[in-house]
């Protein structure tokens, strides 16, 4: 397939545990460059409880915890008919793939959500982000898939180990931003990218539902978005319909929020 025949693709990246107050040029220049080239909200919000597995269930399936039934990080099958945006996209012709490095995530995806998956079960280690990006980069370069989800863990790990706002946390933000830059170099100008997070944090925790835990961000770049767009507010439930709108497939009837675009 030559470049003229290749379809644009959509990449969705979840960077775990990014507190928007720490997103500055020194820590995340790639993310801010994408925000300037597309749209952004750095005053978005997550769900309660502000924990990784419940929040990602909502990020993927577009419903809150009361609907999907996941209230902690113990992996269980979501108790909802609401599909992941990967499954919804695949039902409408997208060729889907996912890259994750935390085994409990597997409960969140339908068995047929993706044609290809790269899953690491190595102890939730920060160095696995590089392995994830290596694998995702190869897939993006081949351009056989049109909707791809990538998860990066190192910021959350640094927050728990050293504290949100610590030097180690800032270094992790920079590391995640470098991973993002590597992924962006595999995309074309007509591709779409959506970058978000599941929760923020304060001290060494994020489960208390404090403003610092609840505040998140959404950044999107797409030919469908004018450069420099700013959304005054956003929430994690808007990720699936926004991905659908930017990628050209219909939103699920079960998703409770509307697209940001």
Task: Provide keyphrases for this structure.
Alkaline Phosphatase, subunit A; alpha/beta; 261 residues
Report on this structure.
There is one protein chain. The protein has 261 residues and is an alpha/beta fold. It has one domain (10-247): Alkaline Phosphatase, subunit A. The protein is 33% helix and 16% strand. It is built from nine helices and eight strands. The chain has an eight-stranded mixed β-sheet, sandwiched between helices. α5 runs parallel beside α7 and α6 (154-162) packs antiparallel against α7. The longest helix is centred in the last third of the chain and has 18 residues, at 167-184. The protein is globular, with a radius of gyration of 17 Å.
List strands and helices in order, with pairings:
Blueprint: E1 10-15, H1 29-37, E2 39-45, H2 52-61, H3 65-68, H4 85-91, E3 96-100, E4 116-119, H5 128-142, E5 147-152, H6 154-162, H7 167-184, E6 192-196, H8 211-214, E7 215-221, E8 229-230, H9 239-247
Parallel strand pairs: 1-5, 1-6, 2-8, 3-4, 3-5
Antiparallel strand pairs: 2-7, 6-7
Helix pairs in contact: 5-7, 6-7
């Amino acid at each position: 397939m030559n470049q003229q025949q290749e379809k644009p693709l959509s990449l969705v990246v979840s960077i775990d545990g990014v507190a928007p107050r720490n997103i500055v040029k020194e820590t995340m220049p790639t993310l801010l460059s994408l925000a300037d080239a597309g749209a952004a909200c750095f005053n978005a919000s997550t769900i309660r409880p502000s924990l990784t597995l419940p929040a990602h269930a909502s990020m993927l399936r577009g419903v809150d915890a009361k609907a999907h039934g996941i209230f902690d990080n113990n992996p269980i099958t979501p108790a909802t008919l609401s599909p992941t945006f990967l499954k919804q996209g695949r039902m409408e012709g997208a060729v889907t793939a996912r890259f994750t490095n935390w085994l409990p995530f597997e409960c969140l995806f339908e068995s047929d959500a993706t044609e290809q998956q790269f899953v690491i079960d190595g102890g939730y280690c920060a160095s696995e982000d590089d392995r994830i990006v290596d694998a995702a980069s190869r897939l993006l370069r081949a351009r056989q898939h049109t909707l791809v989800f990538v998860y990066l863990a190192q910021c959350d790990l640094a927050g728990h180990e050293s504290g949100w706002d610590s030097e180690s946390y800032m270094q992790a933000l920079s590391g995640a931003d470098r991973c993002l830059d590597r992924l962006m170099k595999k995309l074309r100008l007509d591709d779409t990218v959506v970058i978000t997070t599941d929760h923020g944090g304060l001290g060494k925790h994020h489960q208390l539902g404090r403003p610092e835990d609840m505040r998140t961000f959404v950044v999107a770049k797409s030919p469908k978005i004018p450069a420099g767009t700013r959304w005054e507010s956003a929430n994690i439930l808007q990720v699936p319909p926004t991905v659908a709108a930017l990628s050209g497939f219909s939103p699920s009837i079960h998703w409770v929020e509307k697209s940001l675009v």
